[in-house]
From TrEMBL:
This is Gamma-interferon-inducible lysosomal thiol reductase. The lineage of its organism: Eukaryota, Metazoa, Chordata, Craniata, Vertebrata. Residues 1-19 form the signal peptide. Belongs to the GILT family. InterPro entries: Interferon-induced_GILT (IPR004911), SAP_A (IPR003119). It is found in: Secreted; Lysosome. GO terms for biological process: immune system process. Lysosomal thiol reductase that can reduce protein disulfide bonds. Facilitates the complete unfolding of proteins destined for lysosomal degradation. Plays an important role in antigen processing. Its EC number is 1.8.-.-.
Length: 254
């Protein structure tokens, strides 16, 4: 993801390139020298980086505390959080914490977890936790793929293969069944337990480190509008900034 180069900078780059096909989406053009060369925008990317202001505006930080089988959590993640992130990922960050209303105890060797929607949810939470740890920038897409599926658990392997084919499902399940997953889930329990104010339902949404009833209501009503309103930098076109009239990179029907 192209952190620090906002959408308006991308628009400037687009207006100075030819219609050269490449394997990267526009938001990935300047992610590396190789991608910039392949897409024919190396000069523009270098210029954009050189003219960025020194003081970078921090992205709007969204934390979602949820459970893998909670209907309301699945609805918010698939209908609000993921679509908003798809449009505004250059001005927002997302942290997912699968745990929710679960409880943990320690048996002297490992932590044992009890989940609101049973053992299947504990398994779903653990799979998503291991995916978040193992797949980096692809993790959110994989979790979305799972939560948008009819069967969250069964979708896991196919979603990983679709979005991160380099990650083997066996490695995810090794994490799920082993000490690594157990410790990662304990970290989720600690993080959830440290919420101020303490959560009393999920999905529990934290924006820039803060949870209020008003923020929760706005986020569940229109997260997109909330993120645009809280972003302190120049508004990207998706948030309603005036679009540029024409771009030389567009192939117009004259």
């Amino acid at each position: 993801k192209m952190n620090g180069i906002i959408l308006l900078t991308l628009l400037t780059i687009w207006s100075n390139v030819d219609c050269t096909p490449c394997s990267y989406s526009p938001s990935q053009w300047c992610i590396s020298v190789d991608s910039a060369i392949e897409c024919g925008v190396l000069k523009q990317c270098l210029e954009a980086n050189a003219t960025k202001p020194n003081t970078q505006v921090q992205p709007v930080q969204v934390e979602l505390y949820f459970e893998s089988l909670c209907p309301g959590c699945r609805l918010f993640l698939t209908s609000q959080l993921f679509p908003t992130w798809t449009m505004l990922q250059d001005i927002m960050s997302v942290t997912l914490v699968p745990y929710g209303n679960a409880h943990e105890s320690f048996d002297g060797k490992q932590y044992q977890f009890t989940c609101q929607h049973g053992e299947e949810e504990c398994l779903g939470n653990m799979i998503e936790t291991c995916i978040l740890n193992a797949t980096g920038s692809k993790a959110f897409q994989i979790v979305y793929c799972m939560e948008a599926s009819t069967d969250v658990i069964k979708a896991g392997e196919k979603c990983v293969a679709l979005y991160d084919p380099n990650t083997k499902w066996d490695s995810i399940m090794t994490c799920v069944k082993g000490d690594q997953g157990n410790q990662l889930m304990h970290q989720n329990a600690v993080k959830t337990g440290a919420l101020k104010p303490a959560h009393d339902y999920v999905p529990w949404i934290v924006i820039n480190g803060e949870h209020t009833d008003d923020l929760q209501k706005k986020a569940t009503s229109s997260l997109f509008t909330l993120i645009c309103s809280m972003w302190k930098g120049p508004k990207p076109e998706a948030c309603g900034a005036a679009p540029m009239k024409r771009h030389r990179s567009y192939c117009y029907d004259e």
